[in-house]
Amino acid sequence: MTTVLICALILSLWSLPLNYMPTIARFAVGGVEWGLSNRETMPDIPPWAERAERARKNHFENLPMILVVLLIVQITEQANPIINGAAVGIVALRILHGFAYVLGVPLLRSLAFVGSLLSLFVILWQLFN
User: Fold this and answer.
1) Which distant-in-sequence residues (6+ apart) come within 8 Å of 25 by Cβ?
2) Which of 41, 44, 86, 108 has the greatest number of CB atoms lying within 10 Å of its CB?
3) What is the C-alpha separation between 91 and 77, in angstroms, rounded?
4) Cβ–Cβ contacts within 10 Å for residue 103, how many?
5) Mean of the pLDDT values across residues 16-40?
């Protein structure tokens, strides 16, 4: 498997912890009764879990464009060391973004977000040059 595909896989799998952190927090507060209900009401969750919910939303908003770019690199066989490095950078920065979001470190979260976008632009630049 290529570096680009491994990065796409890691980003996709990163969805799992981001997806379930808020649910586990709600289950801890609401108990089994809430977990087995229709969940028409949501129990209040701690601030870290609310941030985890926002991190999950941000991840799913950004994941499609990142995956499309990585798949275009794969399909067109244009991977090179710069693209591979930028893809690894995206993965590391998106994971850092998620942790920084949940832990409540806004400056680090913002820097990781901007860094991942810059890495994406590096890949796009390489694709069209």
Assistant:
1) 45, 46, 48, 49, 52
2) 86
3) 20
4) 13
5) 88
Which long-range contacts link 74-77 to residues 24+ away (Cβ below 8 Å)?
74/2, 74/4, 74/5, 74/8, 76/127
Q: What's the rounded mean pLDDT across residues 79-88?
A: 98
pLDDT digits (tens, 9 = 90+) for 29-77: 888 888 888 878 888 899 999 999 999 999 999 999 999 999 999 999 9
